[in-house]
Amino acid sequence: QVSDRCDYVFVNGKEMKGKVNALVNFTYQYLSAPLQMTVWVPRLPLQIDISDTELSQIKGWRVPVVSNKRPARDSDDEDEEERRGRGCTLQYQHAMVRVLTQFVAEDSGPWGQLSYLLGSDWQFDITDLVRDFMKLEDPHIARLQEGRILVGREVGMTTMQVLSPLSDSILAEKTVTVLDDKVTITDLGVQLVSGLSLFLQPSAATSRAIVATAVAQELLHTPKQEAVVSTWIQFSDSSVTPLDIYDPKDFSLSAVSLDQGVLSVQPGAAPRWPVVAAEGEGQGALLRVDMLISEACQKSKRKSVLAVGSGSVRVKFGQNDAEAAAGGDYGGELENRASERRQRGWEQERQGHQGHQGHQGHQGHRGEGTLGRASTTARPVLRNKVVRNNRLDGPDDGQLQNIPIDFTNFPAQVELPRAGPGVEDELVQTPRGLSDLEIGMYALLGVFCLAILVFLINCAAFALRYRHK
């Protein structure tokens, strides 16, 4: 549409389709000039991507029950353990949510074939644009937190929907199940992050995109340099989740240095994410992190430890992690800097994945429609709403790319690319599907083949009948 003063053109969301080289004519007295524009529209239905569509209770992780009712007064003879454990329930698993779409426009040709922004194998993360219009059909079963985190509440099945702001139509929907089963925390992943580096390079897939890669630095290269502890948790159902999507009031982390001469835990730091500092050169699994349940749900004076993890430490004074990456093979450096701790976690997840290959019904539904389970990755490569779904060498490689680390400022789901370029901002590459024109051509060809087959059968029947006479 054109504004009343003819000083700009705009779309208001009521448009039904897009177009390549849409023509806008500007006239003034006897002068006129055309302007060609391309109008891109999102392709419907939108795609809801949930990292885990089946949520379960987490065994041993008790959280306070949120209630508006004032609790009854404690009796004098009530046991201390009963008083501290009352009013708590098991925590449900959380999952990350994204809304994806393709932007399309009709060609100006007679066939009206669709053109895709950056190609038919790209999708855009539009979660921030539609988060106010996302809802769950039954909020008693699950709830949506901050538009990006799905939290289970009670056993049942519900549907997540994206509603149109202009009508009552549903733009996308996805089924979510809260199971009665319980899962356990099998591993607590730990990584030290001393800094971030940003690298920009042209995309190998298209000339209209630039790769922006954020690299998490693990090396401590100056005395007293600090690093934050990043953590993620792995469950018995093989799902992996960054710890930062859970409410910080429901857990606490305790860090202990196993070699005070190399690494020290900073006193007075926030208990949620421990901070460590370099004291001397050295390397190895020198940091232990304990995950505890909230103080309000401790049943006894002895702390309830949910999981224990160890972090790999590298301290070498005078060598900068970013300089080493910039001066050498960039892709190889990213691959080789994974710590022994993460390698062991990957092997455990691979074995778990192979052990569950026979259960296609459960695992297949859990992974359906998702591009990855994690919002960040254990390897030092991070992407904010940036995904390139590269081809993998085997069925296990996809599991290795989705182990997360924790960064509060990276809310979007993120995956790790294979070596080489392949990280596009706001974009997700997906397997290419058939266009509407191709589907129509194949359908028409099938009808023609069927008609020819019927004709030949009739001819054969007529010939046999004529010969018999």
Automatic annotation (TrEMBL):
Location of the protein in the cell: Membrane
Domain Transmembrane protein family 132 fourth: 1-44
Pfam families linked: Ig_TMEM132_4th, Ig_TMEM132_5th, Ig_TMEM132_6th, TMEM132_C
Sequence ranges of Basic and acidic residues compositional bias: 334-352
InterPro entries linked: Ig_TMEM132_4th, Ig_TMEM132_5th, Ig_TMEM132_6th, TMEM132, TMEM132_C
Sorted UniProt keywords: Membrane, Transmembrane, Transmembrane helix
Residue segments, region Disordered: 324-380
Annotated TM spans: 439-464
Topology with respect to the bilayer: Single-pass type I membrane protein
Domain annotation Transmembrane protein TMEM132 sixth: ranges: 184-299
Domain of life the protein comes from: Eukaryota
Domain Transmembrane protein TMEM132 C-terminal residue range list: 409-469
Gene Ontology, cellular component aspect: membrane
Domain named Transmembrane protein TMEM132 fifth: residues: 47-183
Family the entry assigns: Belongs to the TMEM132 family.
Annotated protein name in UniProt: T132C protein
Species per Swiss-Prot/TrEMBL record: Oenanthe oenanthe (Northern wheatear)
